[in-house]
User: Fold this.
Amino acid sequence: MGNGQVLLDDVPLSRFHLRVSAYTTGGMFCDGYILGMIGVALAVWAPQIGMSATWEGLIGASALVGIFLGSLVFGPVTDRVGRQTMYVADLALFVVGSVLQLFVSEPWQLVVLRLVMGIAIGADYAIGAALLSEFLPRKQRGPLLASLNAVWTVGFVVAFVVGYLVRGLGDDSWRWMLASSAVPAIIVLCLRLGTPESPRWLAAHGRHAEADEVLRTFFGPNVVLGPEPPSPRRARIAELFTPRWRQRTAFASLFWFCQVLPFFALFTFAPDVLSALGLDDEFTGGLILNLFQLAGAVVGVVIMNRLARRGFVLWSFVVLAVSLLPLALAASPSVTVVIAAFAVFAFTVSAAGNLETVYPSELFPTELRATGVGFAASMSRVGAAIGTFLLPLGLEHLGNRATMTIGVAVLLLGALVSWAWAPETRHLALTEASGGDAARAGEPV
Assistant:
């Protein structure tokens, strides 16, 4: 760049970057906490009222259906009205929904509340990754975007630990488990106030003076965006299915779908799954698996920039399928086999799950980024909702071997999709990575 100018993609990592990363990951902590708590809460409440497997499945899946709706609707809205307003509004809905769970008395009421909270979570998936990716320099983009999923995992694991500790407080302990998500949501809501609008979004919508002001205020007078194509039209989901973008849309949606379907099915009902597989102390077993999950999330952040994106996603599916294979083949697996298989699955799915907050943000341009991320997130939650609803029914009617076999098949589909369509985006500037016409694989698998 001339005259001492520096591209936003190449600026040194600053306190501002870390602050926005913290505020964004804070929302993901809340997302993981809200979704992770429901399995423990249901393990307490369901036996009290003799809840059927159908109602358990509906409650477990309701937030995931909400995420589908929130991601699908608010991705395009975020591309049209901007990132910052939506970045704050969805946390307010977290707080309200969390508190209202204290007053639930019937399963259908919890289904409705979890649906609404899921809508807020879905919006946050689309908003947070888009906003953060548009601020970060290319060298740190992978690890810091990966930290979104890692902190989501922290929230999921913390929810399990809190639920495990609170479950002995009486018949109403499940209410306090669910309402406790209001605490982190209030903290993150306060921290997000005052976050600036994305300068990339401002420039793409012709608001160059405002974009320059954000750059001067938060990065310095010599920082520029570089080429940022103007937005040719209002963001529409239909644009994702044009010849230019449909392969990336299919890949982002399907790899995410195939990762989360078995994940949510197995971990939302971890106590039930472990019990069905012969582990008597299912809470302790679930806690151990969540610790492996947390370790995987941390390792995934560390290795994100050390592995080609394409190779990471492809081989992780292979490892995940192999980890569940013993549970699909053995009629009565030993406790050691069950724990080992689930530990490898938990570690790997958590490490590779970091790609869910990295890859989609790199695949779409600024004018379609939240729309593309939101659509991929919504499709993934179709898989999560299907798995969460059907898993208790599958264990009840098909048995654990058939249920695990279905999980293996889904993971192998993910490997096939990744082999066919995964592009390589590591080390590219954000505009280059999201160009759409780049070569599919810039680095060897």
The chain has one domain: 8-223+235-433.
